[in-house]
Amino acid sequence: MNKKVLISGGTGYIGSHISLQLYKLGFDVHIVDSFVNSPGKNLENLKNFSNKDKNFKNRIFINEGDIRDRKFLDELFLDISKRKEMFLAVIHLAGLKSVPESISDPLRYWDVNVNGTINLLNVMKKYNCKSIIFSSSATVYGNVKETFLREDLPCNPCNPYGETKVVIEKILSNIFTSDPDNWRICNLRYFNPVGADPSGLFGEKFSYNPSNLFPYLNLVAGGKKKYLRVFGKDWPTKDGTAIRDYIHVCDLSYGHILAMNYLLFKKSQILNLNLGTGKGTTVLELIKTFERVNNCTIKYEFEDRRPGDVSSLIADNNLSKKIFKWYPQKSIEEMCKDSWNCFIKNKYAI
Ligand code: NAD
Ligand code: UFG
Fold first, then answer.
1. Residue 313 lies in a domain
2. C-alpha of residue 212 to centroid of ligand 2, in Å
3. At 125, which CATH number?
4. 3-class SS at 32?
5. What Cα–Cα distance (Å) separates residue 138 from each residue in 5, 86, 114, 146, 301?
6. How many angstroms separate the alpha carbon of residue 36 from the centre of ligand 1?
7. By alpha-carbon position, which residue is closest to atom 11 of ligand 2?
8. Furthest CA-CA distance within the chain
9. Cα of 175 from ligand 2 centre, angstroms
């Protein structure tokens, strides 16, 4: 039976976790990645898994290339179609994701995220591969008054990165309208993915100057940074620091498996769905939890609010629960533990 899935950005942080789960479920995992932001160990460990496992030998196929390169994608799809096969679905994660970078270099973000997606969709259409799960983001909602963000809220992003996600969702909606009997589309709006597979084998690209909170927490705990800068102490929240809905990357990844399963076995449709736990945590609460479960001290200092930030982002995840029967399992404690475990296993601490 054909069990081929194409995963763009499949050696990145989230993509490597999804690839691993797909592989463990017996799918043939075809990865497309330019490696512009993937840590070498993700690629190495995915290959090791595939090569060492006698039952599933060579089930992970890595294709190095850029999604903006039409010829590269065309050849990949042509090769599969020559064998009278096609990908069951595409899980599309490849893209750039830094909010500050998108403010300083918006053209690069529009080019990679939007042009790259248009290119991929053109090739998918050409080879009649019409099921796609797209990595969208909670950042599409922007600054909203509601505590729990529902999928039917208007999109009002505060930065170019978020705007690219909204535009891609619009393009996907347009192509669905153009051929509603065949396209199966799911935009998954991630809240804040954190943590790592408990093996510590897969993670984010290491940086000494990360913009996200979790990598920075690890650097402080590991003695690589003196203190954490907490952006803003005057947000309208219980302790004045911003609230986010942190979701373990393994739970998030499983959401993709359920989404794909749902799309493939139900009528053609387009869905927008949140992937978050529905629970909010402030920056200060997170620091305390990280210290407690990892037995360390996190020094911090308050700084001004960061441009492009919002006060609170918490998912209303009732739709994902109802439609996919997706119930995130992992606690904030496990997120902190697994994140630190991955950090020290990769010898980044002191
Ligand atoms: P990541 O940077 O670790 O992974 C992205 C992967 O895409 C990398 O392996 C990179 O090399 C690859 N890539 C980038 N540009 C490419 C191109 N032009 N052609 C081919 N490959 C390319 O990021 P991630 O955290 O795993 O995020 C994956 C997706 O999820 C992104 O689309 C991101 O916008 C979205 N997302 C992430 C978060 C988050 O907090 N991590 C939140 C919401 C949405
Ligand atoms: N923060 C700090 N200090 C830091 C880093 C972050 O106080 O050094 C604060 C931020 O101000 C924010 C919270 O911690 O209030 C979380 O910040 P992150 O940068 O970790 O995450 P964001 O919510 O800003 O953005 C993330 C991803 C986006 C994604 C968004 C919503 O980076 O790609 O979640 O899913 F779109």
1. no
2. 5
3. 3.40.50.720
4. strand
5. 25, 31, 17, 13, 27
6. 9
7. 231
8. 60
9. 31
Give the global pTM: 0.97
CA of 93 from ligand 1 middle (Å) equals: 5
Instruction: Name the phi and psi angles at 259, rounded to 5.
Output: -65, -40
Residues 221, 290 contacting (CB under 8 angstroms): yes
- In terms of phi and psi (left: phi > 0; alpha: psi -120 to 50; beta: otherwise), the region of 283 is alpha
Strands 28-33, 192-194: pairing is: unpaired
Q: Which residues line ligand 2 (CB under 6 A)?
A: 97, 99, 137-139, 190-192, 211-213, 216, 228-231, 242, 244, 283, 306, 309, 313
Domain tally, the chain: 1
Q: How far apart are CA 145 and CA 153, in angstroms?
A: 11
**Average pLDDT, consecutive stretches of 10 residues, N- to C-terminus, the chain (350 residues):** 91 97 94 95 88 72 97 98 96 95 96 98 98 97 90 94 97 98 98 97 93 96 97 96 97 98 96 98 98 97 90 96 96 98 88
Nearest ligand to residue 157 Cα = 2
Nearest CA to ligand 2 atom 19: 212
**Residue of the nearest CA to atom 12 in ligand 2?**
242
- Is the Cβ–Cβ distance between 255 and 275 less than 8 Å? yes
Q: Which atom of ligand 1 is nearest to the CA of 97?
A: 34
Burial 207-245 (b: 16+ CB within 10 A, else e): eeebeebbbbbbbbbbeebeebebbbbebebeeebbbbb
Ligand 2, atom 33: nearest CA belongs to which residue? 97
Catalytic residue annotation: 161
Structure tokens at 10: 């499949």
Residue 14 lies in a domain: yes
Instruction: State the residue range of the domain holding 14.
Output: 4-195+247-276
